[in-house]
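Review session, final week

We close the course with one last complete record, chosen because it touches almost every idea we covered. It is Glyoxylate/hydroxypyruvate reductase A, a protein from Salinicola acroporae with 310 residues. Go through it on your own first, then we will talk.
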Amino acid sequence: MTIIVSHPHREKTDWWIKQLQALLPNWTIRPIDDPGDADAVTYAVVWKPATGAFLPFPNLKAIVSLGAGIDHVLADVELPRRVPIIRTVGTDLTQRMREYVALHVLRHHRDMPTITANQRERHWQQLVVPPATGRTVGIMGLGNLGGSAALTLAALGFETLGWSRTKREIEGVTTYAGDAGFDGFISNCEILVCLLPLTEATAGILDAELFARLPRGASVINAGRGQHLVEADLVAALDDGQLSHATLDVFHVEPLPSEHPFWSHPRITVTPHIASLIDAPTGSRIVAANIERFEQTGHVDDLADATRGY
Ligand code: NDP
């Protein structure tokens, strides 16, 4: 009964081992590069595992992703497809994402980037914006995070639209689904929030074609994954005024390299993948509880569907 832990940063691997060992005293918990008897390994707790990382462990019962997304696990071309993947989600994660989305939607809605730039110029300009009830915000992805954020935006008074793969019902939110619903959704979003998982279908979805379908002057917030965005298309849409501003929390390469033009673009706000980080003590309790439940019942609520990609 061994659990292996893999994280790109060694100190974080050690931290997770310590936390999980305290919560699961009957288990042996070891780093992936020093697993002991490989046949005894039945669970892997991972963030961004290396390609082929799971091949030495024939008896894996489940892989636990240290996050809501599983794209970092599915990126392993040698992943044993028979092994279920458990996501780590919880109320802390949704609460934090609600805060991030509310913060940045309100910031775009009230045109804070212009007000901040005006302050630097000592320029007094009273911008008049409509109330939230006169502003339409759209969320791509209505799962744990997007669905919860949509409720928050609707409670703030925004005209809130949501788009998902299959039709969702959310009180106070006008919902659309699939390709058929996309045009009705996208053509009205003055502020667009991406909270999709990264899959084959969603990679590169934030591109020139999508930006052209938004109302002129729209803003975009991407807190899904960096690979949702075609970076050059974003810069072109900002430069020609089709988009007025973008807030980006996730990037193709993280940390965002210091020479990357996004850092200094006047109409891009960069946040360092902090929209909703897993709170470490809460996260370890969720991981431990999921492993125990899966061991006892063979099921947990947070099972991802690898064939769907999320
Ligand atoms: P869920 O799996 O709960 O929800 C995903 C949503 O996206 C569902 O509504 C799903 O539709 C929809 N969706 C998936 N594929 C498509 C598609 N092709 N077209 C339209 N809609 C689609 O995910 P979470 O809400 O938990 O997380 C979403 C993502 O947020 C994660 O995968 C991760 O990448 C990112 N994330 C970012 C964080 C950050 O700090 N920036 C923190 C945590 C996660 P349906 O409802 O029909 O299934």
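Two points worth writing down before the exam:
The chain is about 30% helix and 20% strand.
The mean pLDDT is 97.
Good luck, everyone.
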